[in-house]
Each structure stands twice: as C-alpha cells, then as structure tokens.
Structure prediction request, 701 residues.
Amino acid sequence: MIHLGLEFSAAIAASGIFARAVPLPLGQLLQEPITDPVAIFLTILAIMLVAPLLVERLRLPGIIGLILAGVIVGPYGLGILDRDPTIVLLGTVGLLFLMFLGGLETSLDDLKRNADKPIIFGLATFVVPMVIGTGVMVALGYSFWAAVLVASCLASHTLVALPVLNKLGIMRHPSSTATLGATLITNVLALLVLAVVVKADQGDLTLGFWLFLIPALTIYTFAVLWGVPKLGRWFFKKFGHDEGAEFTFVLAALFVASYLASLIEIEPIVGAFLAGVAITQIIPRLSPLMNRVQFIGNTLFVPIFLISVGMLVDPLILVRNPQSLLLVSIVVLAELVSKFVAAWVAARWFKWKFPSTMVMFGLSMAQAASTLAAITIAFDIGLVDEVVVNAIILMILVSCVLSPWVVARWGAQLQTQPAEAEAAPVDAQNVPMVPTLGKRVLIPVANPSTEDNLLQLAIILTKRVEGTLLPLHVLPDRNQPIAEADKTRQNRLLETAETIAHAATIPVETIGRIDDSIAWGILRTIQERDADLLICGWKGFSTYRENFFGSVIDTIVRSATIPVLISRFPQPIENTEKVVLAVTGRQANLGQIKQTLTITQCLAEELKAPLHVVQMTVGSARDRKLTALLQEEDIVVQPVQGNTVKQVSEAVQPNTLLVLIASTRMVGQSALGREPEAITKANWDTNILVLHFPAKPTKRA
Prediction:
C-alpha cells in the first residue's frame, strides 16, 4: 500500500535520483557543504533577508529570489548547503504551512454561496491538463499509465504565489476564492489518479481499494471540517486567555490533520488545506492569533520551503542531456497551455475580465508539492526514467518563477476593484452614505478577565477602517494619594492592551489618567482624544439604586457625544457561530439602524458567522421604511410580532452574538432601556452587544 505522507521530500533525497543525474555537484569544486547547524540557519536567514530585496529591485516578486537562491546555494549550484534531513523537515513544514494559509483564507460560507465557480474551475484545471498531458506523453512513446501519471503532475498545482495575493490584498477577490477552492478539488483528483495508477501498475486495482478509499476520504473530510471547529470552540472556551495554548492548538490541528490524511493514502497537503478551512471558522481574520499564525508561516516556514524547492533543481542538466531540453520544452509548454486554457474557459464562463483570467492562470500554473510526490513514486516503481524526472523538476522551477510574476503583474489591476465587482454590479446611487465608525476607538480596560474579548471586538472594528485603538484606564481621585499598587495595575492593564494591539498590527495609543471619577475620566478622554466610538464592558443588569442614581454605564451613556457599544461576553468571541441583529422601527432613526447594520455585517464577516436579522413589526410607517432599508441591503429578514423578549430569545442559539439597539429609557430604568436588560437576563450565557447613539448627531455624522 502506497502512502503519500510527509516522507515524500525525504524520499526524493534518499532515492538518489539527482545523485545519479549529477555525479559531482558544481559546489564541491569550491567547498564542502556547511554542516554546522548555526551556520546553516544563519545562511538561510541571510537568503530570506537579501534574496527578496534584490529581485524586488528588478520589479519581480520576492519569492522568485528565494527559489533562485535555493538553486545557487543548493547541491547542484555552489554546494553551500546540502538538502539534508533538516532542510527536508523545515521545507515540508513550510509546504504544509503554505497550504494551511490558503485554507485560512478560504471561507466555507463563500464556497457554499459560490460553490459552482470553484467546482467548475477545479474540474477544468484538472481535465484539460490531463487530456493534453496524456496525449503528449503517449505521442512521445511512453506507456499509457506513465502518460496518465505525468499528466496528473501537470493537473495538480501548489499555491506558490499565495504570498503575492496577501501582499496585493486581493485574497478575497472572486478569482482568488475560486482558485483556492479549485486547488482542493484538482489536487485531490490528481492524487487519486496517482493512487489508481500505482495500484494498476502493481495489479492491485481491486474493488476493495475503492471501497476503502472513497468512504475513508468522505469520513475524513467531514471529521476535519466539522470536528476541528467543535473542538476548537471548546478549547478556546477553556483556555482562551492563554495565547501560547491557542497558537499551539492551531499548529496541532494543522499537523494532526496532515498526518491523518497520509494514513488514508491522501497527500498531507490536502489535510493541511482542510485544516485551514476548518480553523478559519473559529479565528477572526483580524485577530492577533490569526496575525501570529500568518506571520510565522509567511516569514519563516514558507520561505524555507521555497528555498528547498530551488535546491532540487539541476541547472546543468540541459547542457549534459540535450534530450532533456526537448522534453522540458514540451512538458513546460503543455503545462502552461493547458492551465491557461482551463483558466480562460472558466473565466469566460463566469464572464470575468482578462486580469482575473491571468490571476487564475498564475495561481494554478505553479507545480511543487503534489508533483514532487507523484514523480518520485513513479520513478521508484519504474514507470518513468531519469529524463522525465529532471524535466518535471525543471518544469517546477519555470512554473514557480512565472507564477508569482504573472499574479503580481495582473493582480495589481484587481486591487482597485471591489471584491464583489465581478460577482454583481452595484448601483452607487442606491448605496446610502453612512458615517464610518472605528477611526479612533476608545476602550476602557479595567477587568483582566474581560479585557481580551473587548479588545478583540475593538480590533475588528478598528482594523477594518485602518483606525487607531485607544485603550484607557482611569484611576479615580478620592482626595488622597493614589496607591502604588493601583498605578502598577494600571500600567499592567495598558501594557497588555498594547501588546494585543501590536500583535494585530494596528496603531495604538494607551491612556492612563487620574480623574474625578471613572465615568467623567472616560467622557473627558472622548473629547480630548477625538474618539468616534466607545466600547464598554457591561455586567448585564442594573440594581434599583443604579436605576435611580445612575451607574458608571448610565452616566457615560447619558452624557456621551459619540456612539457607545456596550458589550457583554460570557463566552469567547471566537466561538461565535451566528450573529443576530434584533431591530424595530421605533427604536432609532434609519441612519442609526444603518450604522448598526454596518457594524453587525462587519462582525459577521470577520467572525465567519451567518447574519440573521429579526425585525419586530407593528405595521407602522417607520417599520415599512425599515423593511425597505433591509431589502436594499439584500439581507434575509425574519419579521416577527408579539413579545420582544420571547421572539428574540427564540432566535438565539448556542454561540450566538446578539446585537441590539438601546431602547427608550424611562424613569427608574437603566440608561439602555428595559428591553435590552430583559433580553440579557433571558439569555444569560449569550454574548450581547447593545449600541447606544447620542441624542444629537455626532460631529462626525
């Protein structure tokens, strides 16, 4: 039984393929490879620093420099580094990280809503190379099964240019999303072809093989996409305040899913991609944890993988073996033509413009992971010779160099287009102008147990508009010296907030102050620091004394000149599976409801949770206007009548984030009104946000 596991890179090194092709590496004429571990790692770091900077001066993507640097320092270049087990290990981790990062940018909801596009392109970019590749190899005199296996190498692809998408900011463009989904489809099909060809060559292509593979693949996919999010929500709930534990859990999910894939004869990169798709459901895109994962992968492991790919290439093979030059030319041409035809046909079918065609072509042309695994196994069982192996390796180099250049060249033209521009036309005249909140978000920090969720919320709202976070801690002046312990605690809270904000790469200005009271310290800071949104924690209820004399929240809400987002998080915000907005026409004017809807849509998008709107209707003119507004936004609305608390509670499920608008206050009630407090008491374990708008328009409106 063939296992396409993490050992495929080691198999390449151990098989002796390249040693037979080149008896004496060029670098051995100069020196022996570096063996000191510190010197090896230092050399790799130097390459990661210098190579991208040099090629970027030539207006080429930086990752091209990493691949070419691998060729130069590798065993078939100057021989400075040997592709030893350490390089193989780090390169394999980088490969898995590359596919994992692709999965993190793939939304299941997007795939469900636009499943036709990834499926169509995935089948096209698999079938066209299979047909062309098989025909070309058969015409060159190779056996049918050898031709099919080489064709499967052309059909699969590796997202080498994924860092370019991140840099250009077009990861969520329809063409990018379609290609990410197609990657899963074409790689799985290509690897299934590999398994079938190997079994057929060995005479083991029996009914039992299919009876094992198909159910195992189905069960595995369901277990990863359903089980990892469930386990992750439980883990974050129990250990959500330990940042190290959260990061370790993400890595564990990546490598467990990859290893389990190899056990059922599926390439580990497929497991890594599925793990990313599963994990992204429980980690907000703009959260510090997501930033750490992407930073470690893009900065360390993925560059090492690209260097290791370059180290596989023999630049002198074309000189020593002219036959390889012809075969390389044919294979490279067949691969490029087939991938372009598939992208062009799919883009024409979707009615997308030429830049989208080229981005799809650029992303899908690169060969590395599955191709290396397939050609190594084919050589080991004698289906192909050394000429084909070296031709495939050089095809990998050509495709890996061209892929990021093509994506960078045409992807830049997609930067100015909205992510949905090609999916549906937008009538700009019908889009209401809404003031943007989040440019300067003020967030008082006082309780370490609730600080993390409040900061996560503030980061999401701040980063989407490239705003600044203003963490604040107020020490009340009681006409006596401030205790040193209180000052130390203030510094610690602000330092924690600053660390979290820096981890999410957003500007932060910490504020520590002494004032008459906490409430007035917050209110004065709003004016002094020009804040446009205030986020406060809330215990969920008010005592009788607070209702009559006012609590800190009441004082802030009654006097604030900017919107106030009152937040209560009994559960980690990462566990959100559904976002519910409950509104009624009598609560606020349409402009305020529009602002609330904008914030809610942002949260639903970042938390990867579906948005559900509950509208309490009484048939008034204001309710009809609210219905028209929601219909303009193309939002599914559930109109309900009757008791507000009961109807809203019925819409709430476990792990729901409920968004409300503060209702009218009466004497003896909380400043937020009666209904938000009653709904909170009826749904005590539910995360709730209550948005309060000032009585008069804010200066930014």
